[in-house]
Design a protein that fits this description.
alpha/beta, Alpha-Beta Plaits, 3-stranded mixed β-sheet, about 25% strand
Length: about 160
């Protein structure tokens, strides 16, 4: 009987501790605020305006960056927050140099050079957008963009 009463006391004590600890653990909003504060206080990451989502102590960072250094710094700062379990890097490089080279190649072509085509680059993925192209112009623009050194894939969003 004493052994059972002792086990009950230990179980009750463990339950109370678990409830108290659960109440003290930072919420997802608390973790998000702490990550945001660290990113905003850092000269490298403050201007980026990254999006932060927290689910079950996993921090998801997303948004555009200009370099891998910026991404690494953001991940490092998020990981430094106590109670963060994992940081997921959903950020992408805004590769403006590659976008400029693709724009130059398109502008140099007699067929597509006068058509307004928006160029967006995410890493090595190039997205071409325009509502003023026909099928032949779209195909040519995709070929031109794909031939630019550094382009890994071209996504045709032209109409």
């Amino acid at each position: 009987m004493k052994q059972t009463a002792g086990k009950r006391k230990a179980l009750t004590c463990a339950c109370v501790i678990a409830i108290v600890c659960a109440g003290c653990a930072p919420s997802e909003d608390d973790l998000k605020r702490e990550v945001r504060a660290r990113l905003d206080a850092d000269a490298t990451t403050a201007p980026l305006g990254l999006s932060i989502t927290v689910k079950e102590r996993v921090v998801y960072l997303s948004g555009k960056t200009a370099s891998l250094t910026e991404q690494r710094q953001a991940v490092r700062l998020a990981r430094s927050v106590d109670r963060v379990r994992v940081v997921m890097n959903d950020m992408w490089l805004n590769n403006t140099m590659l976008a400029d080279r693709v724009k130059e190649a398109l502008a140099a072509d007699a067929m597509v050079g006068r058509i307004p085509i928006d160029v967006e680059v995410q890493g090595v993925l190039v997205r071409l957008s325009s509502d003023q192209t026909n099928g032949e112009q779209r195909a040519k623009a995709v070929r031109i963009a794909a031939a630019v050194d550094g382009v890994g894939e071209v996504e045709d969003r032209m109409k």
